[in-house]
Each structure stands twice: as structure tokens, then as C-alpha cells.
Amino acid sequence: YDKDHGFEHVRRDCPRAPMSIYGARLSALLDSGAELNTIRLKTAQVAGLVVTSMPQEMAASRMQAANGTYEDFAGMV
């Protein structure tokens, strides 16, 4: 944990930073090489974010996580 900058290093030194969305305090993984930003559905709901349906052309899309597993997209915020 880097108290000076508020960063927490976990899992092979992946940097995380404290953040808040509409007052909900969260921890975010910093990934400067990511092609898109994602948030778990439960986390989005806790933060009060509105989740809308995926556009038809993206409805069947899946993402590959850093650990090699595949996940469906629940929607967009």
C-alpha cells in the first residue's frame, strides 16, 4: 500500500486506487493497456449506476479476463 498516493498493489503488483461513484467507496484496478473499462454488475448497482442493454450488434460479445476466463457483458453504463 502506498500511503502517499493511495495505491494498493495486489496480485502480481497490479495497482489499485481508491475511488468513489456517487458516494459509494470502491477500489479500482488501474490498467493503462485496457481496450475498454469494465465494472461488475453488482458493483455498478451498489454505486447507483444505470445499466442499459447492450446494442444488438454487441449482445453476443464476450470478454476475456486477465486470468483467461470469459465473461458475458451485462450491459452498459
UniProtKB/TrEMBL annotation:
Gene3D superfamilies, alphabetized: Acid Proteases
InterPro entries: Peptidase_aspartic_dom_sf
Name of this protein: Peptidase A2 domain-containing protein
Protein species of origin: Decorospora gaudefroyi
